[in-house]
Amino acid sequence: MVVQASRQDDLLAYASHEHQAEAAVADIARMAAKARVGSGLVFCSSNFDRQELAREFSRQLPDITLVGCTSAGELTQRGYDEDSLLFIGFPQDEFTLTSLRFTDLDALDVVQAQAQIRRLVADARRRDPAAMHVAMIFVDGLSHREELLAMIAQEALGDVELIGGSSGDALAFRDTAILHEGAFHRQAAVIALLSSQRPLHAFCSTHYRAGAQKMVVTQADAASRTVYEINAEPAAQAYRRLIGIESGPLDALTFAAHPPMVRIGGRYHVRSIQSVNPDDSLTFYCAIDAGIVLTIGEPVNRIAELHEVFSNCEAAVGEIDKIIGFDCVLNRIDAAQHQISREISSLYVDHHVFGFNTYGEQFRSAHMNQTFSGLAIGQRRA
Fold first, then answer.
1. Measured distance CA(120)–CA(103) in Å, rounded
2. Cα distance between residue 229 and residue 241, in whole Å
3. Are strands 37-45 and 65-71 parallel, antiparallel or unpaired?
4. Residue 144 neighbours by CB under 8 Å, 6+ apart
């Protein structure tokens, strides 16, 4: 077990590297018993047996409200981590975490969902009129419904900001899930409203800028996020030509280094490629359709960008207690390729970042890729 909790009134953030669910949850339960934790977030490796994990949560942590998901990697006191069970615990006298779950996302009733979200916010404001509120969303990373959920949720939330991430399974793309009310759920999403009188600051940072190479999607299937043609050529062939790689595999390393970007509302957002298919089509992590103009992204200095992000967080909340981080798995892959993983991990440790590697990030009304997004939480006010 590994722990970071420097002061009694800090949020608890710790990760177990036990491989069996019973032992891993026991690590968490021992620490939670020493603190005033009333609710928490859980991000877990996809290697855990989820039924066993859920059973152990119910048995060993029966009085703690838990929300979370499976991950494509964890962010712990080691920085980038894997094969771990991460718990972020909120002191019950300073934080309230309320939540609601949406299932069968393909048949989501938008009007009903928005009404539920509005009630969630109204109830939180009645409980504590002086509190700040931020909504965290966790979406099944294989659902292809993140765009719709982010849009309708932010509209219903009003001035409460939305931040979150899509669940992962270590790049297997087979079985991701959301934890809510003692069980893991597929094809589901959870919105968790965090309320506190501590300062809260949601942020989103992109490590790429738009380059000169542009392309037009000329044939696509929006439902499956599959692009068949770019510039009237087979998609994979056109992408190769534009990034200057004529041979060799098109894989996660390539996609992370040369991400397509789309301009929305005056800003460029990454639309990452998930995989290349046998017919030379490309499957994307985000919404895509014919007629969209994409630009090949170019990297910025990520280390300098992260320093600026953390400086802005400190300016917003004062001394940072914890940052709940949602870091795209492709950022992690690209960091390894450029041999800066250790430096980034050190920055995350220094600034108390805990969270997970995602299959996509949500910020306000947008679903994006290859961002580092999160929620900075300040220390208790005197």
1. 17
2. 13
3. parallel
4. 223, 224, 225
Q: At what angle do helices 146-157 and 110-127 cross, to 10 degrees?
A: 40
CB 371 within 8 A of CB 363: yes
Distance CA 366, CA 326 (A): 14
Give the C-alpha distances (Å, rounded to integers) separating 6 from 3, 24, 85: 9, 22, 20
Sign of CA dihedral 222, 116, 161, 358: negative
**Token pair belonging to 340:** 């800066």
How many angstroms separate the CA atoms of 5 and 21, rounded?
23
Q: Find the helix or strand (DSSP H, E) in which 119 lies.
A: helix 110-127
Which tokens is 143 given? 């659902």
| Confidence category of residue 36, pLDDT binned at 50, 70, 90 | confident
pLDDT confidence bin for 8, thresholds 50/70/90: low
Beta partners for residue 374, in sequence order: 203, 325
Strand partners, 162: 135
Amino acid at 46: S
| Residue 369 DSSP class | B
Other beta carbons less than 10 A from residue 312's beta carbon: 14
The size of the chain, in residues, is 382
- Please give the C-alpha separations between residue 287 and each of 189, 265, 343, 368, in angstroms, as whole numbers: 17, 16, 32, 9
DSSP string, 53-85: HHHHHHHH-TTSEEEEEEESSEEETTEEE-S-E
* CA quadruple 367, 104, 96, 45: dihedral, nearest 10: -70
Neighbouring residues of 154: CB distance < 8 A, sequence distance ≥ 6: 161, 162, 364, 365
The residues pairing with 102 across neighbouring beta strands, listed in sequence order, are 189
* Beta-ladder partners of 183: 180
Q: What is the pLDDT of residues 117-156, one digit of tens each?
A: 999 999 999 999 999 999 999 999 999 999 999 999 999 9
